[in-house]
Amino acid sequence: MFLKGANIDREELFRILVEDYENVKSTYTNTMLGEPREITYAKGKLDGACMALGIEYEIIEEKIVFKTFMSDKKVFELPFKPEKPW
User: Fold this and answer.
1) CA distance 17 to 71
2) CB 82 within 8 A of CB 26
3) Would you say residue 14 has pLDDT above 80?
4) How confident is the model at residue 11 (pLDDT cuts 50, 70, 90)?
5) Taking the mean position of all CA atoms in its chain, how far away is CA 50?
6) Which pTM value belongs to this model?
7) H-run or E-run covering 83
8) How many CB atoms lie within 10 A of CB 75?
9) Buried b or exposed e, range 2-25, using 16+ CB within 10 angstroms
10) What is the pLDDT of residue 15?
11) What does the alpha-carbon distance between residue 83 and residue 11 come to, in Å, rounded to a whole number?
12) Where on the phi/psi map is residue 28: left (φ > 0), alpha (ψ -120 to 50), or beta?
């Protein structure tokens, strides 16, 4: 319902979230205390959107594959190539 109200489709929403997650992974690195909160927050946004739409994701090599929960049918995939933080 929100997606129709915002005039955005599911693939476009996930493209935005994956770009955000990729940007954060390229900018921040793990510290001695673990993952920075920016990475956790970006991953949480992606997880929340997946749960709301009933799909899951898996990072395989340099792409993110989105699949349905029950049948593991591939819905779509997006490139995922975060750079190493300096």
Assistant:
1) 24
2) yes
3) yes
4) confident
5) 8
6) 0.82
7) none
8) 16
9) eeeeeeeeeeebbeebbebbbebb
10) 92
11) 23
12) beta
Cα–Cα nearest to 27, from 45, 42, 15 = 42
Q: How big is the CA angle at 72 (ends 1 and 20), to the nearest 5 degrees?
A: 55
Alpha helices by DSSP H, listed for 1-86, are 2-5, 10-27, 37-53
SS (H, E, C) 2-23: HHHHCCCCHHHHHHHHHHHHHH
18-59 pLDDT per residue, tens: 999 999 999 998 888 888 999 999 999 999 999 988 899 999
Q: Is 21 within 8 Å of 43 (Cβ atoms)?
A: yes
Residue indicated by tokens 């997946």 = 50
Bridge partners for 84 per DSSP: none
Q: What is residue 35's DSSP assignment? A: S
